[in-house]
User: What shape does this take?
Amino acid sequence: MIPEVSIQSLALSRGGRQLFTRLILKIVPGEAVALIGRNGSGKTSLLRAIAGLITPDEGDISFGGVEPAEAREAIHLLGHLDGLKSSRTARDELSFWTGFSGGSPGAVEACAGQLDLGPLLDLEVRRLSAGQRRRLALARLLAAPRPLWLLDEPLSPLDAEWRGRFGEIMVDHLRGGGMILAAVHDPLPLAARTVEISR
Assistant: This one.
């Protein structure tokens, strides 16, 4: 379990362009934080830096005394793109990601039920709508539970009903001691602290 996420005096740049400097942020169990800011401000890059995919120019990212390599086993990063292989069936894709993330085989059916994916599991991913693909991607969060969710525009292709229903899932995650850091343009459907990213 990660006791907290602590970011101190962080500076990030991409492609030779400085995104932001001196960012300070702390997230504790049971808390959701919504990252806002203009396109290109560094919201996605911050998520990737916390996940260990980008090295900051300056500053520190720590996990309450947990070593970064160990902490990253407790992180789910869900990008703006779904990262799904279109030629696989939804079942095969969900099974692959569940196993890759350390979830049990039985978790596939359980999380598919939570997100109403049962009737879609035997369809190829390419035949799913954008909203259905997003629900399939979100199912990975439930199939292999991890305490820290890093989400990039998690609700963008979902309709109003599914935004509300996934909001309930996020609330359950927080009640269980989880943490959420989400880059958003639209408000999250739950109480969240807002942090603006800018230069």
